[in-house]
Amino acid sequence: PDETPEILLIRQTRPDVAGRLSERFRLHRLEEAPDRDAFLGAAGPRIRGLAVGAMCPIDARLFDRLPRLEIVASFGVGYDSIDVAEAHRRGIVVTNTPDVLSDEVADLALGLLLATIRRIPQADRYLRAGRWREGSFPLTTSLRERRVGILGLGRIGRAIARRLEGFGVAIAYHGRTPQADVAYTYHDSLLGLAKAVDVLIVASPGGPGTRGLVDAAVLAALGPEGIVVNIARGSVIDEAALIAALQAGTIHGAGLDVFENEPQVPQALIDLDQVVLLPHVGSGSHQTRAAMGRVLTDNLFSWFDGKGPVTPVPETPWTGR
Ligand code: 8YV
């Protein structure tokens, strides 16, 4: 019998990923099946691996249709859309694409911070609208003298902090545990951090453990000069509370690359002049997305070579076969 492992692609459309996988595996694309239910009934029992796009919901209902599934290789560092506890119960390994995107996302975070504080997109719109001839662009607030707090000092949070060192600002952070190898000030509560800083950069994982952490009280603690930047997951911020704080002037502005219900962005945010809004582009360069694709495919190749996953998530540790 043909022992070529069968892999199902779900919301995974990169040609380089599919091209490399097709050298070794038999590929199916869920989105191409005219009747997904019929497809899963017929081919589901043969599928041994998944290659999935970022933020693609993967849960017990899907696992039920894939009884031979061994590995879920996800495109992206965040995997809050995957039920990893359920995967672990079933002995399925989940992999993500850490490290290769940290610098890219951190670059974007700094760009978003500066764009928000110095109103770079607004100034660009001002020029294009021909308004420079009428007078100078209004003065803005400044990054100078600011104290920056980072929520989540993981790989991306650290890359952001390293960049901020070059900007000469005070750096503090909050996370579950203080980290021994950094000199930044640790706060054991997010509210404590928010009281001590006037910029909050969100770099934590998404999922139930961080849902709504940045709430009305945290936003109020940042103060009227407060700036919020989010390059992590929209779910970490209570979006309604953020909109209310911006509308009331309780905080100064926000730079957001992620939203609670992407690609839906509340009109109330779009209507606000003091926010910079990006369509989830943190890792979105040709170079970094290609690197992420290689990590995804490396995981599937290594797994089916019997060498285990390259970058398993901590919730589904590889213990050998
Ligand atoms: C996505 C991301 O992977 O890595 C993550 O967690 O959110 C992004 O890098 C990207 O949008 C690709 O679709």
TrEMBL record:
Specify the domain of life of the species encoding this protein: Bacteria
Could you tell me which residue ranges the D-isomer specific 2-hydroxyacid dehydrogenase catalytic domain spans? 14-313
List the keywords (alphabetical).
NAD, Oxidoreductase
Instruction: Pinpoint the D-isomer specific 2-hydroxyacid dehydrogenase NAD-binding domain residues.
Output: 110-282
SUPFAM superfamilies from the xrefs? Formate/glycerate dehydrogenase catalytic domain-like, NAD(P)-binding Rossmann-fold domains
Q: Note one Pfam family from the annotation.
A: 2-Hacid_dh_C
Check the record and name the InterPro entries matching this protein.
D-isomer_2-hydroxyacid_DH, D-isomer_2_OHA_DH_cat_dom, D-isomer_DH_NAD-bd, NAD(P)-bd_dom_sf
What family does the Swiss-Prot or TrEMBL record give for this protein? Belongs to the D-isomer specific 2-hydroxyacid dehydrogenase family.
Instruction: Name the PANTHER family for this protein.
Output: 2-HYDROXYACID DEHYDROGENASE YGL185C-RELATED, 2-HYDROXYACID DEHYDROGENASE-RELATED
Please give the name of this protein. Answer: 2-hydroxyacid dehydrogenase
Organism this protein belongs to:
Methylorubrum zatmanii
Q: What is the lineage of its organism?
A: Bacteria, Pseudomonadati, Pseudomonadota, Alphaproteobacteria, Hyphomicrobiales
